[in-house]
Amino acid sequence: MNRDQPIPDGFLLVDKPAGITSFRVVDRVKKQFRIAKLGHGGSLDPPATGLLVLLVNRATKRAGLLLGAEKEYRAVVRLGVETDTQDLTGRVLKSVEGGLPDRAAVERVLERFRGEIEQVPPMVSALKHRGERLYKIARRGEEVVRPPRKVTISRLELTGFAPDRLSLEVRCSKGTYIRTLAHDLGRVLGPGGCLEELRRTAVGPFRVDQAAALDRLLEGTRGDLAGKIIPVAKAEEELKT
To answer: Which one-letter DSSP state was computed for residue 134?
Structure first.
């Protein structure tokens, strides 16, 4: 590794693997390449994979541009199971085997979730209630009232169907919880549901097929890393289009 290779300001697209926090991705890249400032433009839960946009050096001041951008996901919803986290990492609250909907019923219900909808944020989230993160409150076994939030689902397509699993492609506004979408969809369909898999495929104009796999990125040199960084001016121009 050329330890003197300068690291430019800009956006770095990383394909996050499952089982690691977004904070840990930032920490590993920062330490490996001795980057002065490094942040991200919107986290992914540890089980999720896909596009994580890292902000290098002075680009950390541009986080707001990404936080407000539309996101795209591929998700798998497990029907017949509800959990306290709205995904498969949580404690099972409800499990049923019968009464699963057919494909036509799912297609009809999906229409209700397109456009502007309201979501009640999950208890296991980083939102704050009276200055405390909701997930910390949830760890104590407590639950507080969360006011619903308006979000926009601009695309919601059923791409795969099995009796107990739905594959979806979603494009949505900031603040949308795909876990909550899975939970609410399961409730309306009847048997309940939770999120089984999640992969973020795009943030604004940036797509996961442009991103570097984390392990491969960490195996490279500072020069390799520098060559993958999108300059701030170019990134801002792409975000405007």
So the answer is: H
